[in-house]
Amino acid sequence: MPIVEVRGLTKIYGTGDTAVTALDQVDLSVEPGEFVAVMGPSGCGKSTLLNLIGGLDTPTSGQVVIDGTDIATMSDKHVTELRRRRLGFIFQFFNLITVLNATENVALPLMLDGKSLGDSQHQAEEWLTRVGLANRMHSRPDQLSGGQQQRVAVARALVTEPVLMLADEPTGNLDLHSSEDVSDLLKQASEEWNRAIVMVTHDLRVASHARRVVLMADGRIVDDIKLDGQDAAETVRAAMAKSGLL
To answer: Which range marks the domain in which residue 23 is found?
Structure first.
C-alpha cells in the first residue's frame, strides 16, 4: 500500500477574477522507501503540493491519504499528531533553535510528544551518529557549517521514525559539496532506512539522487520519470526539455 496517495488534488487561492489555481487535479502516489523529487518552474505548485501533503494547508478539493487515512477526516489534534509522529519535515533554512545544541534540537520533537529527557537525548544521539555528527552533538547551530546544520535537521526529521519525509529545497542554502552530502544522506534514508521522501528541488544534480522525478507546470504533473542511476541528470534534463521546462 502506498504511504501517500494524492487524488484529484486541487488548490485555488482567492475567488472570482482574482482566483489563482495553484494545483489542478493532481494525482500522485509514493511507495514505502521511495525517493521522489518534484521539479518545475517557480509558481508551478511544487510547494503547495508539499504543504497539502503535510497537512499544513487544506485543499479546495481532492484527497491526501497518508498511511491509509484521508487526512481531511482527521481532527486538528490528530493532524498535529500525524505531523509530529508520522511525518518528518526538512526546510531550506534548517529551522534549528539557536540556543539549543545539536542533541537538544534533534531531541525536541520527542520531548514535545511526551518522551523523557533521557530517552529523547539517547535517540537523538543515535541519529546524529548515523548522519555523521557524532563529534558535534554538543555544538550549537552557530558553531556548525550550513551542511552540518542541515544534517542536524535531517536527524531531527528522522528521530520520530516517520513513514514519510517532506523536504522543501533542502539544499537550496548550501554550497555544492554540502548539497551533494545532504542529497546522499536523503538517498540513504530512503534506501537503507526505508523512509519515503517527497522532495521539492530546482537542482538537477540533487534530483538525480531520487528514484523518481515528477515534473510540474501550471499546477499539473506533466511527466513522471523513473531513474535507474545511470545518467540520471541527463535523463531529467531531456524530460524537462521535452516538456518545455528548459
So the answer is: 4-86+162-242
For strands 164-168 and 87-90, give the pairing.
parallel
Tell me the backbone φ, ψ of residue 173, rounded to 5 degrees: -115, 20
Short-list 106, 107, 101, 96, CA closest to 138:
101
User: Grid cell 525536541 — which residue?
Assistant: 108
pLDDT 10s digits, 153-207: 999 999 999 999 999 999 988 999 999 999 999 999 999 999 999 999 999 999 9
Q: Could you tell me if 27 and 40 are in contact, meaning their C-beta atoms sit under 8 angstroms apart?
A: no
Whether 171 maps to a domain, the answer reads: yes
Q: How many domains does the chain have?
A: 1
> pTM for this structure?
0.93
Backbone angles phi, psi at 223, to 5 degrees: -165, 155
Q: What is the CATH number of the domain that holds 225?
A: 3.40.50.300
Would you tell me the crossing angle of helices 146-158 and 102-112 to the nearest 10 degrees? 20
